[in-house]
Design goal:
Number of domains: 3
CATH architecture of the largest domain: Sandwich
Strand content: 35-45%
Membrane topology: Single-pass membrane protein
Radius of gyration: 28 Å
Shape: elongated
CATH class of the largest domain: Mainly Beta
Number of helices: 5
Distance between the termini: 57 Å
Organism: Triticum aestivum (Wheat)
Subcellular location: Membrane
Keywords: Leucine-rich repeat, Repeat, Signal
CATH superfamily of the largest domain: Galactose-binding domain-like
GO cellular component, one term: membrane
Number of strands: 37
Structural class: mainly beta
């Protein structure tokens, strides 16, 4: 199930005050830091903008629909000064398509800053979708009242040569969905690799630097531009005096996020209420990071047991100066969560914790057959004016499938029908339309499609092909006579010429219309 919106409301912060921008002043004092690998898309912008170490690019090359708009607020971060909104209420979704490497892992982040761009008093509520998975609802009302931005994150794996990030209206959406920024950041294959990303995505709940204060830690401290929020409670804090090597930790946390820690005195248990929000009942991925802040020596050992909500998480953990990470790949949590660290009876110092991450595990929302996705994408490119929602997964989520496209309930999902009659479409049909081997009916009547009729010999399930009232030319493809299930073939009122294949003239049970052509 997608993340409930109440679960995401605490995940906001004022981007203008965070590390990606405030650390830009240090650029002259330190060597230039290379930009983290990935795409940083400034939605609605018409030119590149540099914010700290990161260059943000306009979104025109990633989306073909929607309107750009400026946000009229003083002293606003450039990335929040524009947005793209989507007033077309007939479209089932509005999708960005970003190049990716199939099988690679990515951090996906969407950022929203309303700023009253549409003159309304409150931002709309809408859904966001990654590939075919319904990720979450987007409700930025609370942060908008505070003049702040909202961000959402997930870790997901690319299933093809691109990833789509889409917005979609809900029944309660009252105005145009919008987006301010979109990021797709490359992660290492070793990161979060105990999750089966063919079946699940990880939706970020929070990422905390324990004992830290001040600004959010991100790039360039975190080379993957993850956000680590400072976290303190009533417990004592300490700071590490040992060198910290992120490569020594699974998931490669930044050294700065491990620099501080929450601790307690010798012999005492350490209780930490974390994360700082109530969780809905769900399955979670939790990673906890520990590092002894003292200078390494034969005596600098710190052993304790770790439990979460009264259940063992790890026993006999030794938080050495080199550091250690422990995790739960799947843990059921709900409500307030308590981490308890219980020291070994002979340990000379109290337990501590340096950093923590928690993600909700969200099942992937199914998958459309790769061959069907490729064929439908080819068709979208071959049409000069496809429907505005023809991007992203053609079938999923089911309530947000492409206009005119009918799909199966199988796994993987198959494209079964195409109904785009009388929509003023122009362009041609690609040869790859024949790869839609699960197709039952195609209705493209009353458009302005031209070019030859492609080979349909692989679409043996096809029962009806309506291409009448277009501008198709050339001969009738003889492959149509070999379609054993074909019952209706409407080719009338085109520019076809030549002989009608004998296999069509004699095909039993076939209703064929060919008038209005130059056929024999």
């Amino acid at each position: 199930m997608p993340l409930p919106i109440a679960f995401l409301l605490p995940l906001f912060f004022l981007l203008a005050a965070t590390a990606p921008s405030s650390r830009a002043a240090d650029a002259d004092a330190a060597p230039a830091v290379p930009q983290p690998r990935g795409f940083y898309i400034n939605c609605g912008a018409d030119k590149e903008v540099q914010v700290g170490s990161i260059k943000w690019v306009p979104d025109a090359g990633f989306i073909a629909v929607g309107n750009a708009s400026a946000v009229n607020k003083p002293a606003i971060l450039p990335v929040l000064a524009t947005l793209r909104h989507f007033p077309d209420a007939t479209a089932r979704k509005y999708c960005y398509t970003v190049p990716a490497v199939k099988g690679s892992r990515y951090l996906v982040r969407t950022t929203y800053f309303y700023g009253g761009f549409d003159g309304g008093a409150e931002p709309p509520v809408f859904d966001q979708i990654v590939d075919g998975t319904l990720w979450s609802a987007v409700n930025t009302a609370d942060s908008a009242r505070r003049g702040m931005s909202t961000y959402f994150e997930m870790v997901a794996q690319a299933q093809g040569k691109s990833m789509s990030v889409c917005l979609a209206r809900r029944p309660d959406t009252r105005s145009s969905p919008f987006i301010s920024a979109l990021e797709l950041v490359d992660l290492e294959d070793s990161m979060y690799n105990t999750t089966d990303f063919d079946k699940y995505v990880l939706s970020t709940v929070t990422r905390s630097a324990m004992g830290a204060q001040g600004e959010i830690i991100s790039y360039p401290d975190d080379q993957y531009n993850r956000y680590w929020a400072p976290f303190t409670d009533g417990n004592p804090t300490t700071e590490s005096h040992s060198p910290i090597a992120p490569a020594d930790f699974w998931n490669l946390p930044p050294a700065r996020a491990l620099k501080g820690a929450i601790t307690t005195s010798r012999g005492k248990k350490l209780t930490v209420q974390w994360p700082p929000l109530e969780l809905p009942f769900a399955s979670y991925y939790v990673a906890l990071y520990f590092q002894d802040p003292r200078t390494a020596s034969p005596y600098s050992w710190r052993v304790f047991d770790v439990s979460m909500n009264g259940k063992d998480f790890f026993r006999g953990l030794n938080a050495s100066a080199a550091g250690v990470m422990v995790y739960s790949n799947t843990i059921q949590l709900a409500g307030k969560t308590e981490i308890l660290l219980t020291p070994n009876g002979t340990c000379p110092v109290g337990p501590l914790i340096n950093a923590a991450e928690i993600y909700q595990i969200v099942p992937v929302g199914g998958r459309t057959a790769t061959s069907d996705v490729g064929a439908m994408e080819d068709l979208a490119r071959s049409l000069k004016n496809p429907p505005p929602d023809w991007a992203g997964d053609p079938c999923l989520p089911r309530q947000n499938s492409w206009t005119g496209v009918g799909c199966s309930d199988d796994s993987p999902v198959r494209v079964l029908s195409l109904d785009l009659k009388n929509r003023g479409l122009s362009g041609s049909l690609p040869d790859s339309i024949g790869n839609l081997t699960g197709m039952n009916t195609i209705s493209l009547s009353g458009n302005k499609l031209s070019g030859p009729i492609p080979d349909f010999s692989s679409t043996q399930t096809l029962t009806a092909l309506h291409l009448d009232g277009n501008q198709f030319s050339g001969a009738i493809n003889p492959s149509l006579g070999n379609l054993t299930n074909l019952k209706e073939l409407f080719l009338n009122n085109n520019n076809l010429s030549g002989l009608i294949p004998p296999s069509l003239k004699t095909k039993p049970g076939l209703v064929m219309r060919t008038e209005g052509n130059k056929l024999q």
